[in-house]
Amino acid sequence: MKVLLIGSGGREHALAWTMSKSAKVSEILVAPGSDAMSYVPGCRVIEIAESDHEALKELALAEKVDLIVPGPEGPLVEGITDVFQEAGLRVFGPTKAAAEIEGSKEFAKKIMDRYQIPTAAYQSFSSIAEAKAYVDTCGAPIVVKADGLAAGKGVVVAETNEEAYHALDDMMTAKAFGDAGRSVVIEECLRGEELSVMALVHGETVVPLVSAQDHKRACDGDTGPNTGGMGAYSPVPHLDASYTDEIMQKVLRPAARGMSQEGRPFTGVLYAGLMITEKGPKVIEFNARFGDPETQVVLPRLKSDLFLAMMRILAGEEIELDWTEESCAGVVVASSGYPGPYEKGWPFQLPSLVEPTAQQWFHAGTTKDDESTGGDGAWKTAGGRVLLLATVAPALDEAVKKTYQVLEAGEWEGMYYRKDIAGKVLN
C-alpha cells in the first residue's frame, strides 16, 4: 500500500521512518519532504508545498494512495483533510472544524468547560486594555497565549505583571504572531510536572500512546523563551502508570466524545499537553496532530505497525498498541538565536553513533548540498530546530547518557543544545 505523508520536519521524518518498517507499505510519498527523508527506505520526496492543497489532492489521486497522514497543524487548521475527503481519499487527520481544537485556544477552552475537562481558569480578550486590566486584577504569575497558531511560541509564562503587559503588547499591538494574536487567552499559572499524552482517535474510539515529557524552554534549568521543544523523553517514570487511566477517563475520552457531540467528530492524533498539579492532571493545551519533539521519542518505542493501526482505527476497530518497556531520550540541536532570529547555512557533520541500532537522527531543519550539481555533499542548517538525536535504552539514564555522548563528540558551530534533558527526573 502507498502512503502520502505531508510535512518536512523532524516529526515527519520520524513518521516516515516508523511507517517504512511496515510490511504492508510499499512506498511513502513525502511532500514537501526533506533531503534527509530521501534516505528513508521506501520514501520518495515530492516538492509540493504543504499549503498547496489542490496539488496534493491531485498527487494523491494520480498515485492512488491508500492513506494520507498530514503532519503539521497549519494544513489541518486550513482544511486540507476536507479537500482530501471530498475527493474520496482516506485521511488520518481532523477536518477543519475538528482541528479548531488546536487552531483556537479559546475554542479549546470552551470545549473543556462544556465537557468538564480539568484545565486552568481563564478569560479571553480581543481588547488589549481589558486584557491588561485582567492582569491587574489577577496578578502574576500568569500565562498569556495568542489565540491562534504560533508555531509553539505564542505562549508567555509571565512572572510579573510587566512581563504580561509586554507579552500583550507583542501579540496584540506589534503582531509578533500575525493574526494569531488578534485575541488572547489569559489563564492562571499552573504549577507541577508537565506531561504529554497523545492518542489515535476516530470518533469516540481513543487509543492512547505512551507518555512523554517535552522541554519547551530554550536554556538549561528551564530558563529562556519558549520554543517548539528542545528535547523530550519517554516514558515519564514517576507520572506514567499512575495517571494513565485518569487522563483517559477525564481528558481524552471526554474530549473525543465532546467533539462528536459538537458535530465536529475528531479523527487523527489528539495531543493533550498536561500539568500534573496537586489536584491531578489539568490540560494546558490540545493539539490536533503528533507533537514535536514528542513523536521522535514515542515512536521509537512502538512495536506495533503504525500504518496498520491507523487503517484499523479508521475501519472502526478497537485496537491495543504494543510498546517496548525501554526508555527513549531525544535532544534537539538548534540554530544559535532560536527561537529568535538565527542564521542558516552552517555546515556540520553528524558524529558517529555509539549504538547504531538504538539511535536515530531525525532532521528538522537541514539541507544537503547536492554533489551531482557541484555541491560538496555537506549537511547544512536550514531551520531553527536542526536535528534531534533519539536513543533507546533499557533505562532512561542510559538513554540520556548515550545521547549526550554522541552530541559531545560533534562540532556544532552556529548551533546549541540543552545539556539537561530529563535532568530533573534523573537527579
From TrEMBL:
Lineage: Bacteria, Bacillati, Bacillota, Bacilli, Bacillales
Enzyme Commission code(s) on record: 6.3.4.13
Keyword Nucleotide-binding assigned: yes
Pfam families: GARS_A, GARS_C, GARS_N
Residue stretches making up the ATP-grasp domain: 109-315
Cofactor names: Mn(2+); Mg(2+)
UniProt entry tagged with the keyword NAD: no
Residues that span the membrane, as ranges: none
Similarity comment: Belongs to the GARS family.
Name used for this protein in its record: Phosphoribosylamine--glycine ligase
Superkingdom of the organism of origin: Bacteria
InterPro entries reported for this sequence: ATP-grasp, ATP_grasp_subdomain_1, PreATP-grasp_dom_sf, PRibGlycinamid_synth_ATP-grasp, PRibGlycinamide_synth, PRibGlycinamide_synth_C-dom, PRibGlycinamide_synth_C_sf, PRibGlycinamide_synth_CS
Keywords, comma-separated and alphabetical: ATP-binding, Ligase, Manganese, Metal-binding, Nucleotide-binding, Purine biosynthesis
